[in-house]
Specification:
The protein is an alpha/beta fold. It contains 6 helices and 9 strands; from the N terminus they run αβαβββαβαββββαα. The chain has a 6-stranded parallel beta sheet with strand order 2-3-1-4-5-6, with helices on both faces. The chain has a 3-stranded antiparallel beta sheet with strand order 7-8-9. α4 links the parallel β5 and β6. α2 crosses α5 and α2 crosses α6. The two termini are 22 Å apart. The mean pLDDT is 90.
Length: 187
């Protein structure tokens, strides 16, 4: 299904497009948490058939090509290893009232994401606060709760931060997020 066709099928839905090296992990985590919380949504991952319902309010898209054709409401920029011109155009295409979530650790993306635009919400993310206990990664919530997870490494923990920001925009509470993230397995 082409991005233009997907857009036509999701014209009345909130469109979340995730791009960059972390797109597979971020998109998979978002899908996992939404499923865990019995939310209605559509999604498309790069190597799977799209899951589309007529009555779902949102679609989560792992955007790998033709990013502008999706006409996103929420965009996640996970790195600048792709064509920087395309990434910048994608960020600029964020509509009024839209959200741009970007990694603050990547200098190229930080420059794009931090451009002054009063009509969108730009949200930077970093590595999720964590600690290691007995060689196991434990997330630390803002309320200082400790949540063991099966993922580790700076890159993966940055993906967790990006996914949490998107899920917050989709109405998932911190408690709902932490209950679901503990049993997430990397794709």
């Amino acid at each position: 299904m082409t991005p233009k066709h997907l857009y036509q099928q999701s014209i009345d839905k909130q469109r979340v497009v995730v791009t960059g090296n972390g797109s597979r992990i971020i998109t998979s985590l978002i899908v996992h948490v939404l499923k865990h919380n019995n939310r209605k949504f559509d999604y498309i991952l790069d190597d799977q058939e799209p899951v589309i319902h007529k009555d779902s309010p949102a679609i989560i898209i792992q955007g790998l090509a033709q990013l502008l054709d999706y006409k996103h409401h929420i965009a996640v920029l996970s790195d600048s290893s792709s064509d920087s011109y395309l990434i910048e155009k994608f960020a600029e295409a964020t509509p009024k009232g839209g959200t741009l979530i970007y990694t603050e650790n990547d200098p190229g993306i930080k420059i794009i994401g931090s451009k002054e635009r009063a009509d969108i919400q730009a949200i930077p993310y970093l590595t999720f606060k964590h600690e290691l206990r007995n060689n196991k990664t434990v997330l630390i919530s803002s309320a200082n709760e400790k949540i063991p997870v099966s993922i580790s490494g700076v890159f993966h923990l940055q993906c967790v931060s990006a996914a949490k920001e998107v899920l917050k925009k989709l109405g998932i509470t911190s408690g709902q997020f932490y209950k679901a993230v503990g049993d997430f397995e990397l794709p």
